[in-house]
Amino acid sequence: MPIYLPELNHDLSYFPAVNTALAEPDGLLAMGGDLNPERLVHAYQQGIFPWFEDGQPILWWSPSQRMVLAPGKMHISRSLRKSFRRQNFTFSINNAFAEVIESCAEPRGYSSDTWITATMQDAYLQLHKMGFAHSIEVWQEGQLVGGLYGLYIDDIFCGESMFHTVTDASKIAFIALQQHLLNIGCKLIDCQLHNKHLASLGAIEISRETFINQLNSQNTTVQQQRWQPQALVLDLIDKANT
Predict the structure, then answer these.
(1) Which CATH number do you get for residue 42?
(2) Which end of the chain is more exposed for a tag (fewer CB within 10 A), N or C?
(3) How far apart are CA 10 and CA 154, in angstroms?
(4) Is 1 part of any domain?
(5) Together in a domain, 141 and 214
């Protein structure tokens, strides 16, 4: 059955109302436009994100259920804490954004494709230079072994992707992220879509309406000093609930 979608025009701030998104596939809202940084910022401020594969038109989504995690509410298992102690990781913020997004774009074992296309990487590198996109890096013996990236907009961190080359490094990057966000007063991590990996760490699903209401209730000032390149000392492992 054909799917008819609104096509974005030259107006970088225009998106259809999120409650007009399709039920199947869930959350598909619009197509087209471009990945201009201004358009991307407007999208995230409205609870919309791009997700498409190479060779497809740009597709924009706002799913009916949004997976989120409140900093400080993360579940950290005993086994993950033991893994952290064993691995001798160190952490940083925004010291290797380009390397993190490039690693996230590498095809996974279950697929030879990636949705983080070269065009997507370029767009988020621009957002990083503008102070919107940020990365958490996990290091082991001077090598980048895990990390994640996303956007910090209106005091909500919109997670995009994570990677690891060493067991548990992506999970521990997520723990480091939530510690930093807790310290700076962030209220919510947007994980976008449900997956078991994030659910095991305590992320839950809320309705699109609830998510949009929380998004609209946050501050609108980007505070650059919160995201200056820096080392990060992870100190929440032993404080976490089990």
Answers:
(1) 3.30.70.3550
(2) N
(3) 24
(4) no
(5) yes
Q: Report which residue type is found at 67.
A: M
- Answer yes or no: is 103 within a domain: yes
d(CA 135, CA 98): 9
| Structural domain includes residue 235 | yes
pLDDT digits (tens, 9 = 90+) for 82-100: 888 888 899 999 999 999 9
Q: For the chain, where are the alpha helices, taking DSSP H only?
A: 37-45, 78-87, 97-104, 118-130, 169-184, 196-199, 208-216
35 and 150 housed in the same domain: no
Mean pLDDT lowest among 95-104, 139-148, 150-159: 150-159
Distances in Å between the alpha carbon of 115 and those of 98, 118, 132, 162, 177?
Answer: 16, 9, 20, 13, 23
Examine the domain organization and report whether 117 and 39 are in the same domain: no
Tell me the two tokens of residue 17: 């109302």
| Cβ neighbours, 10 Å, residue 169 | 25
Q: Based on DSSP, count helices (H) and strands (E) in the chain, helices before strands.
A: 7, 12
**Residue 164 forms beta bridges with which residues?**
146
Same domain, yes or no, for 15 and 85? Answer: no
What confidence category does residue 201 fall into, taking pLDDT thresholds of 50, 70 and 90?
Answer: confident
> Do 211 and 97 belong to one domain?
yes
